Amino acid sequence: MKIEKKRGSIALTVLFSIISVFYVYPIVLVVLNSFKKKTYISKMPFTLPNAKSFVGLDNYISGIQKTDLLKAAGVSLFVTVLSVFVIILCTSMCAWYITRVHNKFTSAVYYLCLFSMIVPFQMVMFPLSKIANMLHLTNPLGLVFIYLGFGAGLAVFMFTGFVKSIPLAVEEAAMIDGCTPLQTFFHVVMPIMKPTCITVAILETMWVWNDYLLPSLTLDLKKYRTIPIAVQYLKGGYGSVDMGAMMGTLVLSIIPIIVFYAFCQKYIIEGVVAGAVKG
Question: How many CB atoms lie within 10 A of CB 84?
Fold first, then answer.
């Protein structure tokens, strides 16, 4: 029995190792091609850089200059940090209220949040663009509120599951000690929800940082461009693409999110499992 389990474990390890190679290989390919001349990227995309094709950091410098990457990174950083902060703050409070107050209104809010996760984005993209123009949300700050609307469903679902596992006696003790509802939430409930907060922050950060569709639909692209939008502008007329600059820009754009995910990945499983516990 033990031998069969060991063989099964080895087989699964080999299988998932092979799968992981398929996931990592495209990233490695982008990094390798970022050091090649653009002609060699098209002709020999799967070969290592050599004396003829190697260009050093030229692609990175060209990409930064052509896309105004530093400005785009500033817009992306502003939108990502503020969006994730607002999502965590608003949805955690909403989930706490939904869990502790049982009536038809809170039930309706909860199911509307769940429903928002299954509605195809294609159904709302054109009304969204129109409403964003009408409400003057075509700027980074307006985009933050749009991300709050689209990110609330998953966050409320995860926070609600976690709040159900928090003993009500802890909050009652805080109330007896003289805490107001806001003080109870920020000083008692919020610290307990830390694992789920970190998990939501990781998932939402990866989504907002890499998102192309929402900024392209809502932002005034003449004034504001996020990194995915800036990379897209390396495409020229008649389908021409500066592949060298694009590869260098892509590498620079994925480094921050990879570092962030690698640093915080241990909290994801902890937060998801904690959010799955029901009282």
Answer: 25
Residue 76 and residue 225: Cα distance in Å, rounded?
A: 8
Q: Six-digit token pair at 181?
A: 């509802």
pLDDT digits (tens, 9 = 90+) for 171-204: 888 888 888 888 899 988 998 888 888 889 988 9
Distance CA(230)–CA(233), nearest Å, equals: 5
Is 40 part of a structural domain of the chain? no
Name the pTM for this structure.
0.84
Residue 198 forms part of a structural domain: yes
Give CA–CA dist 245/59, Å, rounded. Answer: 5
Number of domain units in the chain: 1
Residue 225 lies in a domain: yes
Q: Which domain does 172 fall in, by range?
A: 56-276
Cα distance between residue 103 and residue 38, in whole Å: 62
What is the pLDDT of the chain when averaged over all its residues? 85
Q: Cβ neighbours of residue 141 under 8 Å, at least 6 residues apart?
A: 82
